[in-house]
Specification:
Number of domains: 1
Shape: globular
Number of helices: 22
Distance between the termini: 51 Å
Helix content: over 70%
Radius of gyration: 22 Å
Strand content: under 5%
Length: about 525
């Protein structure tokens, strides 16, 4: 069947891919919690794969593709987890690393099972562009002659890592320290919580000027319009209290944008995919995956069977929608799909908040995995890599990252405090806000209506989902919004001067370096609990 470990499906490619998937998942989790987004890691992992395999001897483009396919899996898995799971802690509830592992496996597994059957239709027949997947294929074909891009990437990783170490461990850079997160004297060697970070600047560059400008406008609306208005009305004499009063408007905008986005783009994609699914030869296998995954979910998490079935069906639908939307727009708004399914479940069923977050996590991971898989399969189609080999690589990357990401989240929660100024986690905050209310408050209802109107307007203007960035900007700290905006401005200048690709490589490296060291220090502080 071609699944023997022979070129290009080599043991070294799978092992290095598994290890890299862990690192990609770690830095994506850290950076995503800080800036509220995870970029496609496929170009970064392609560069690293090229450099590593050349270092270890003769290789070919397909082996490089196998390695990068496994390696980039951790990034979108981390996105699905960080956008949802931290809401559980914010709501004062608990979840185990074992539960997080199984949520990762179930969500990632069904995302893979539900999207692979559509490869032939989406990639071969419809020829959807999947821009990052196509760009990765071009990069791998070219082979990074002279190693120029790899030197830029590894240099930027070194700079980001050194900056994080100097700031957080040596405390040589003035830092904002959130004392509430230092829950034990064991964590005191780490001066954690610095508001001085490379990640927002680099993240703003990768996100681009349109979305960072919308994000910053959201911050301006809150800090210079809504808050002064409430203070003038005498709602409170404390600035922090008024900020909390304004937060539901931004959260509502995000949910309203999710509803409008699905109506504008999701329904069309779903109608197309239902026809494609009917033609897919592997549809029976994916159908069996729904049954098996539902059983595992009810046993492991003790979730109600009705909600478990709803979670699987939501993941089924949103994985397809994400795969299609990614192909057409190169954007996978996985949190939007998760929020939408969760909101429907809350209104229809009203189950325990813990299980609603689990449902959202599974849907988000499935949607993220689907988009990631299709980008990889696009790369494979161009390079003529066998799809079944890439599926094996994807599974290896999924399992390796799933093993460690639960512990990573616990370490970040213990050391920094997820949802704090240090790691704002805007998507998880939005999820927590909607679940903490027995009914949807008036301010949030206003935000939902505004989010729908804004999304209809931005879609008409060709600005995509900028309304979501505006809503997020309304409730995250302005200390994050401003450097993101500066990063977006730098990207605008780089685009004008044709420095875009170099800037992308440098930004990705800076995020990876700072993120890896940030997680490593958090794990050290967390591990001290059990060692001492």
């Amino acid at each position: 069947m071609g699944l023997k470990l022979r070129p290009p499906l080599t043991l070294r490619a799978l092992l290095m891919g598994a290890i890299l998937s862990i690192f990609v998942g770690m830095y994506s989790a850290f950076a995503g919690l800080k800036i509220g987004g995870v970029y496609w890691p496929i170009l970064t992992t392609s560069l690293v794969a090229l450099a590593l395999l050349k270092l270890f001897g003769k290789t070919d483009p397909n082996e490089v593709n196998i390695l990068q396919t496994a390696a980039n899996t951790g990034g979108l898995l981390a996105a699905g987890l960080i956008f949802t799971i931290p809401a559980i802690w914010m709501l004062g509830m608990d979840i185990s690393t074992w539960d997080i592992f199984w949520i990762s496996i179930i969500g990632g597994g069904i995302g893979l099972a539900f999207s692979v059957p559509l490869r032939k239709q989406m990639i071969e027949r419809d020829k959807l562009p999947y821009p990052d997947g196509a760009a990765a294929a071009s990069l791998i074909k070219a082979g990074d002659r002279g190693g120029k891009h790899a030197r830029w990437l590894f240099g930027a990783i070194g700079v980001g890592a050194a900056f994080s170490f100097i700031r957080d461990y040596l405390a040589w850079i003035p830092a904002y320290v959130n004392l509430e997160t230092l829950k034990s004297s064991l964590a005191k060697p780490f001066s954690l919580g610095s508001s001085i970070s490379l990640i927002p600047f680099a993240g703003g560059y990768l996100i681009g000027p349109r979305f960072t400008f919308a994000w910053f406008l959201g911050a301006i609306a809150t800090y210079f319009l809504i808050v002064p208005y409430f203070l003038m009305l005498g709602a409170s004499d404390k600035f922090s209290v008024v900020i909390e009063t304004a937060k539901p408007i931004g959260v509502g905008i995000v949910f309203g944008a999710a509803i409008a986005y699905f109506i504008l783009h999701g329904l069309r994609a779903l109608s197309i995919m239902l026809k494609e699914w009917d033609k897919a030869k592997q549809s029976r296998i994916a159908g069996m995956a729904i049954i098996v995954a539902t059983g595992i979910l009810t046993i492991i998490t003790e979730m109600n069977v009705v909600l478990a079935v709803f979670a699987m069906m939501g993941a089924f639908v949103m994985a397809f929608v994400a795969a299609r939307v990614t192909g057409e727009m190169n954007v996978d708004p996985l949190e939007i799909f998760a929020f939408l399914v969760m909101l429907i479940a809350k209104i229809v069923f009203g189950f325990n908040a813990l299980y609603l977050v689990v449902l959202a996590a599974i849907v988000a991971i499935a949607a993220g995995t689907a988009g990631d898989v299709m980008q990889d399969l696009k790369t494979g189609h161009i390079l003529k890599t066998r799809p079944e080999h890439q599926i094996v690589a994807q599974l290896v990357g999924l399992v390796s990252a799933a093993i460690v990401l639960g512990t990573v989240l616990f370490a970040l929660q213990y050391t920094y405090g997820i949802g704090s100024v240090d790691l704002p986690a805007p998507q998880a905050v939005a999820l927590k806000e909607i679940l903490s209310q027995p009914t949807i408050p008036l301010m949030m209802q206003m935000g939902i209506v505004l989010g729908i109107v804004l999304t209809l307007f931005t879609n008409y203007m060709g600005w995509g989902i900028a309304s979501i960035a505006f809503g997020i900007g309304m409730y995250v700290p302005i200390e994050l919004s401003f450097p993101l905006f500066i990063g977006g401005l730098i990207r605008h200048v780089a685009d004008k001067r044709q420095w875009t690709e170099k800037g992308r490589v440098l930004s990705a490296g800076a995020i990876a370096g700072e993120g890896i060291v940030g997680v490593a220090l958090a794990l050290m502080a967390f591990a001290a609990l059990f060692i001492l």
